[in-house]
Structures are given as C-alpha cells and as structure tokens.
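Let's sit down with a protein and look at its sequence and fold side by side. Once you have written the record down, we can walk along the chain together.
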Amino acid sequence: MTTPKPVVSFCPHCGNTSVQTKILEQPYAEKWYSSSTNEPDEHPALYHVVRCETCSQILLYSESIGMDPERDGIWGSLVYPVPSSLGKSVPERVRKIYNEASKVKSVSATAFAILARRVLEEICADRGVKTKNLADGLKALIANGDIPKTLAEATDLIRLVGNMGAHASDTEISQPHVWAVDGFIKAIIEYIYVAPEKIKDFKKKLGLLDKKAIQPTEGNNAENG
C-alpha cells in the first residue's frame, strides 16, 4: 500500500496554510435527491480523515466519486470543521472580507475584530447607504428595514469590538469575543442575503410541483394545520 502524499492546505483549526496528511479513508454511500422525486439515488463517496501537521488537529473531507467537479481540493469538500466561507448569494466584496476575517480568527483576535467591522462597512456600501461613519450607516440600515431590530444591538457590538481592535483600549479582545462577533455577523448576513435567496430558490422548487397539491383545501384553517 502506497503512503498518501501530504498536501499543503488551509487549516481552520490553527489558521495556518500548512502540510496535511491523510491518515484514514472510509468509503460510504452518499444519498442524492432530485427536486422532482423523493426517491434518493446512492452514489459512491469517500471520507478522508486528515491531520494538520502544524496543530495536529483532525480534518474531515468528503469526496463524491466522479460527481464533484467543483470540489474544494484534492480530498473533496471540507465538512469538519464546518467551513466559514459564504455562498454566492452574498456579494463578492462582503464574501471576500469575511473570508479574510475567518482565516485570522484563530491567529489574531484583534485582526478579526477589525475585519469584522469592515464587513459591516461593506454591507452598508452594498445596500447603498452613504454616511460619514459606520454608526450612522447602521442606523440607516435599521431604519430601511435591512437589519431587524432584534439584530440592531448585535451590529453595534460588532462595531464597538472593531473599534477596540483598531484603537488603543484597556480591554483585550479574546477568543470568546471572536466567537460571539462571528455568530452575530453570520446572523446578519443570513438575514440580509442568504435567507431571501433560499426562499426564492424554494419557491422555484415548489413551482415544479402540481399546483393543486399546494392549494388550500376547503375548510382549512389554522387548527387543521
């Protein structure tokens, strides 16, 4: 049995681009569903268990055999740890800055906080909000309904933590700060970009069904479901 060649790739655990070595391979049957039928098709796939040689943490990749032309790397798509990259429904500039922030998340909490603040600035620019400072820009997004009131405080917290990173401060930014800010950013991006696109796609899928099947039946009410 030949020894697998190490690969140089990015490790989300430690934030380094370093050597990764495959230590285990596990075949499995992957289930694929089409939008026109509820019957699954099974396709051969592989799990690749990989070790980062910098931090010794484990990564898990999934490869669909012969059916994954856009896979992320030589071992397919990273499934653990869960990738932080954003989908195509998010504007390229917002996506680029967030991805930069994700790469330094485990390396520099200060750098992450500054880039997280920049994500908010880019969202303001994308939504056509032009103000002298970010605080006013966020107020405009909330007033326009781009950001709901439930997330209004989260945007202010991201801005304040970003200010702490950019300027001299007695408060040190810690990893728990990073985790919280990252969660807030994802929630904001989900609300503004991802959820509307998901709803749009789902409506298209519903259009493939028999329209009679989704018409409300006579006498239907909230109690009947």
